[in-house]
Amino acid sequence: METSTTTYHKPVLLHQSVAGLNINPCGTYVDVTFGAGGHSKAILQQLDEKGRLFAFDQDEDAIKNSIDNHRFTLIHANFRHIKRFLKLHEVEKVDGILADLGVSSHQIDNQERGFSTRFDCQLDMRMDKRKSFTATDILNTYEEKDLSRVFYQYGEVKNARKLAFEIVKERKNQEIASSKQFIEIIQKHIPKQRENKYLAQLYQALRIEVNRELEALQEFLLQSIDLLNTGGRLLIISYHSLEDRMVKQFMRSGNMEDKIKKDFYGNPLTPFHLITRKAIVPDENEMIENPRSRSAKLRIAEKK
Questions:
Q1: Which of 182, 212, 214, 216 is nearest to 199 (CA)?
Q2: d(CA 86, CA 211)
Q3: Mean pLDDT split into 10-residue runs, the chain, 304 residues
Q4: Cα–Cα distance between 108 and 225 in angstroms, integer?
Q5: CA dist., res. 10 & res. 293, Å (int)
Q6: Sign of CA dihedral 275, 277, 278, 283
Q7: How far apart are CA 43 and CA 34, in angstroms?
Q8: What phi, psi does 74 have (nearest 5°)?
Q9: What angle do CA 40, 98, 241 make, to 5 degrees?
Q10: If phi over 0 gives left and psi between -120 and 50 gives alpha, with beta otherwise, what is residue 13?
Q11: What is the extent of the structural domain holding 280?
Q12: For position 110, what pLDDT does the model report?
């Protein structure tokens, strides 16, 4: 069954991404966040009979959108395992890798998934439903200091300690089972006139922790260096500052410490040429047509 990209998820920065890959028609490419397949379909259009495209997605709902094409292979796995799964398909090197790190519209609009503040539902937030750990588990089992860390580090909220204290106090009386209950518990700590943005930050924090998103991104980025051929392109679309900062520093230095190594003569030893010194963002028309694209940032680097 194939679901249209319009109802499932509209691909962000589509034309800029495909152009940025600088596609060799007979090359091998990877879309590590398949979703509805919008980016993958556009890449396939640029490939000839010898070209190959591999895609990854950990969400079983996305697997239903697979493309029936002999040049295409969809892998049901997290992109943190990219090297291992490509090796299983006898692929050692590729010519381009694309990652769109956003939550799909399908995931946000599906009430059962618990990604949106619009619904009163179970706080699930699993990208991979084969996993058992959910946002509800975080709220009911994490110690106060760990809850505070999640909200401060991943949600970037200043009153994280107060939130954690309130949650731990209230859950002694009753397990936190729904989004409505969670919001009622922290209501007095939500800044006035900023309710929606603030709750979005908290949901982001819980989602990142549930799915270990930054750890997965780090593992994926480090593997990309070995996977890319010389001249191969790495393209990352990110949606919040934590991801974008990691991507920017990695492309600049080739490591997670953002330390640029130098040779004996002081020349920088970095694995990438930066194709984008400044992130590419959607134009006004795209943001009007697809409001969820407004925070997107695309960065492109080429393997030396």
A1: 182
A2: 22
A3: 48 97 98 96 98 96 94 98 98 98 69 65 91 96 98 97 97 94 95 92 96 98 98 97 97 96 93 97 96 94 98
A4: 32
A5: 9
A6: negative
A7: 12
A8: -105, 130
A9: 130
A10: left
A11: 5-105+213-303
A12: 61
The whole-angstrom separation of Cα 131 and Cα 23 is 35
Give the C-alpha separation, 113 to 127, whole Å. Answer: 9
Query: What is the token pair recorded at 237?
Result: 């679309």
| 218: its two tokens | 């780090």
What is the β-pairing status of strands 94-100 and 28-31? Answer: parallel
Cα–Cα distance, 163 to 151 (Å, whole number) = 8
CATH number of domain containing 161: 1.10.150.170
- Give the chain's domain count: 2
Which residues lie closer than 8 Å to 224 by C-beta, 6 or more apart?
82, 97, 234
Together in a domain, 131 and 199: yes
Report which DSSP code applies to 103: P
